[in-house]
Amino acid sequence: MHEQDITRRQPGHHLSQMERGRIAELYATGTSKREIAAKIGVCHQTINNEIDRGTVKQAKRINGINGKLIYHTEYSPEAAQTRYETARLNCHRPDKIAATSHFLAWYVNQAKTEHWSPDAAVGAARRAKLFTPEEMVCTTTLYRYIDDQRLEIRNIDLVEKANRRTKQHKSTKHKRLAGRSIEKRPKAVERRKQFGHWEMDTVVGKRNGRESVILSLIERKTRCQLLRLIDGRDSDSVEFALREIKLEWGDCLRTITADNGPEFSTLNKAFEDTDTDIFYAHSYTSCDRGSNKAHNRMIRRDYPKGESLDDVSPSQVLATQDRLNGLPRRKLDYRSP
Question: Where is the composition biased (Polar residues) (predicted)?
């Protein structure tokens, strides 16, 4: 192999196994270290260090099997490569999993009992100063431990991560809105600075006739969640549940944004005696009510799709509401709603 056969190397890169072989070939023929450095394309001190580190003691027997052993030293590209690879294994930052075992055990418990996300756990622990910085890992490292299956939590247990996928929206053309469009909604609602602007949806169990469903309202600024178990996915059931909510929360219901489902077709009638403004999202555009859809996935942790809600009690639904309202949120500086 000649020097013109070697591709011009990128500066700053470590020596490769092929380059170490070339060094051994040139050094064995008496080429000076500076000449080797010029041919390889590195600093001469790199060649000095490489030959010093890769020089090993060799033994050679003369005059047959029982002959005398003669020792000598020479540069060995194989020994140099092995030494380099061993050093690379030990040059990374030490693994923190042992030093942070108490925090990791705490997170696993919160994930299993309260369904906290990795980010919620890290943020809440830092805010409450439950652990010192040395006793914790960051959100990225915690996700990496989960990806590497080093904890009892798996990716399938992380509802938001497991359900992230790109969706194609259907055309909204020729779909009639049940009332005022979300485009008419005040721009102040988008900024999430004022309390009292809500998104509303239903969470369905089995889709067979008049199965029980959960009515879900989420407040846009605080992510405060209201859940009510209702008899069915129809306007009468929704209106009946809203009477109780209006009595308790009436002055706090500035606006409500819903989809165009038949269960929300009479919302204007239900709120005609109040100051609440009703708006309807674009058809097939769930991003118009992003907070609602994200929280519905959290509700599904307790009530999976396809399972009937007829055996669920109102107290169970309120327990889910309390759990979600106690969950630390990044948007709230890791405080809970």
Answer: 313-323
Residue 47 CB neighbour total at 10 angstroms: 23
How buried is residue 270: exposed, middle or buried, by Cβ count under 10 Å (0-12/13-18/19+)?
buried
Return the sign of the alpha-carbon dihedral for residues 286, 287, 292, 294: positive
Nearest to 253 by CA among 276, 273, 272, 270: 276
Structural domain count, the chain: 3
Do residues 80 and 219 both lie within one domain? Answer: no
Handedness of CA 114, 119, 120, 122 (dihedral sign): positive
pLDDT value at 207 more than 70? no
Domain range spanning residue 79? 3-89
Flag whether pLDDT at 172 surpasses 50.
no
Q: What does the angle CA 251 – CA 257 – CA 259 come to, to the nearest 5 degrees?
A: 145
235 pLDDT more than 50: yes
Q: What are phi and psi of 295, to 5 degrees?
A: -75, -30
C-alpha to C-alpha distance for 322 and 181, rounded to whole angstroms: 32
Give me the mean pLDDT over the 313-328 stretch.
94
| CATH number of the domain to which 321 belongs | 3.30.420.10
- For 241-298, the pLDDT digits (tens) are 998 899 899 889 999 999 888 889 889 888 888 899 999 988 888 788 888 888 888 9
DSSP state of 329: B
Locate all alpha helices (DSSP H) within 55-176, ordered by sequence: 77-89, 101-114, 118-128, 139-147, 159-162
Q: Cα separation of 324 and 106, whole Å? A: 19
Name residues whose C-beta falls within 8 Å of residue 287's C-beta, 6 or more positions apart in sequence. 293
Residue 169 pLDDT: 46
Length of the chain: 337
